Hints:
- The structure holds two protein chains of two kinds.
- By secondary structure, chain A is mostly helical.
- Chain A is 80% helix and 0% strand.
- The longest helix of chain A is centred in the N-terminal third of the chain and has 33 residues, at 54-86.
- By secondary structure, chain B is of the alpha/beta class.
- Chain B has 13 helices and 14 strands.
- The chains are: A mainly alpha, B alpha/beta.
Amino acid sequence: MSASSSxxxxxxxxxxxxxxxxxxxxxxxxxxxxxxxDVWVNFKRWNLKAVRNPFVLVVSLVQPIIFLFLFTEVFGxxxxxxxxxxxxxxxxxxxxxxxxxxxxxxxxxxxxxxxLVNDIENGMYEKVLxxxxxRTAVFVGKTASEVFRIGVQITxxxxxGALIGAEIATGVMGALGIIGVxxxxxxxFVAFSNTLAILTRDQESTIIGANLLQFPLLFLSSxxxxxxxxxxxxxxxxxxxxxxxxxxAARSLMLGRDVMTVIELTRFQSVLDGVVPxxxxxxxxxxxxxxxxxxxxxxxxxxxxx
Amino acid sequence: xxxxxxxxxxxxxxxxxxxxxxxxxxxxxxxAIDIENLQVTYADGTEALRGVDMVVPEGEFxxxxxxxxxxxxxxxxxxATLLAPTSGAVRVNGFNVRAESQQIRESIGYMAQETSIxxxxxxxxxxxxxxxxxxxxxxxxxxxxxxxxxxxxxTDVADKTAEEFSGGMQKRLDAATALxxxxxxxxxxxxxxxxxxxxxxxxxxxxxRINNRGTTIFLTTQYLEEADQLCNRLSxxxxxxxxxxxxxxxxxxxxxxxxxxxxxxxxGGAVDRSVAIATAxxxxxxxxxxxxxxxxxxxxxxxxxxxxxxxVALRDKGITVTGFNIRAPTLDDVFLAIxxxxxxxxxxxxxxxxx
Lengths: 306, 355
């Protein structure tokens, strides 16, 4: 402290300021925050963190981009022929881009749980619990930031895909549809990675657990090759794998025709026959995984003794 | 040095009047914390708190001491609405911790034992986030952030991410974020652990200032000197129960007299013999005798008047006295007398009490 004179100046200016606060009081002052205000505050925080965190960027964007280029370059000719046997007249680039869009969603979803674990480890989780922010809004804001990021990243993938020759038959509406499918797809894995985070409360276990699942889920699905040419056991697994439903719905939008492999629907006589079953299955899977994650999250943030 | 013209750690109000946060009776409003028979039993059967009673009047600088695992952090977590009491009545700022936790969260600041900041955000962003989380009015945020940065000496590194900070800088940043909304009551769970003396002194000054302006402070600490310097009143908790309460001066008086430390040549069982001599020494009828590393330590009402006689008695029995010191009791002596052990900051820093 410098001098006592500066002290007294400080108290004077202070009491002047706080005179206003007496009238308002802590509770009234606080009422400026709404549910959506709380969502926004957390949305902003997680966006900032995503930009700063190299893990987030590499895992959820760089890695899928590497896949996109390596797969099209290395397997393009061979896989292209196989694809053309089932769906004539399309390039492997066009076939692969929807799968990479789903991969982006999957990888970005892993970072959701990792973010939660980091928050628990560095004390921010508890710090936020002590604030008057609405707890649902806190979680919604964080998830909204992840969903937003997935949307941006799928857009980047679609743009890169177009650069290397992939075509979106359904145009801009189809592109928006693919982003929508990607986001809907991501939610169950967001929920799953948060579940892992709460159960393990450990960053490495969460990353390993979620990453370990990423590749089997992708390869044992219709993502990289048509199901028809894959071994029987893979086909069986693929029919139970949410990735198949996400990829087939996104791919139907990409190609402008029904390429849903598991569920045959002819009701709409359009691309919707390929999209609607996938969307329905994903929504159901989201609900189940989401319910588990919400239950665990609310238990973890409750003040009941454990 | 903080700028004199702007003070970020404002009092909840001026001239000692606090905003009437609960709107109920004055008597209740005067109690920042009111705990009756608080019990917390964890799911594994551990009885962390076994009937704690405590009243902290508004405006007090209250210190909460105890060995590790005694229940300090558990108590703070109940008060900060992070942990529900198993039984008992707990009111904070007049609000019930069970039914009115939201109102409590709006009217308290909380600094956890583990440094809690977002390492990926800059110092400035961390404080801004706290401002928004606590609903600091938009127009006041920028000023509040820059004042707090100045106060905790982080203005120069305001745009650096917190992961680049030293432990002390992170702790200071954490302290700043706990006070953005100028709460009438602040919980500080070992706020200066791991800080260098300069940083600690600066925080002390800061805590004193907000207390002088009427903010109630509930502090736990491992540093007895800190409690002695800062607190109006102390409570010591042991095995989930409050064992003693009073001002630092009161507590020191309870030690019963003054303390005579005697350093001796410790070879050949000299310490044992010295203990025996001191215990049997008649002028110190009420003495308690402790072994120390270098000799013995005698606590007695008459330590000052008859101390030299003991030294003579020791010499007569062939013990070589190499040094002595008569002093008033410190809080460490109080702590020793009550809990039977010295508080050990180093050891305490290693053992995380995260419950």
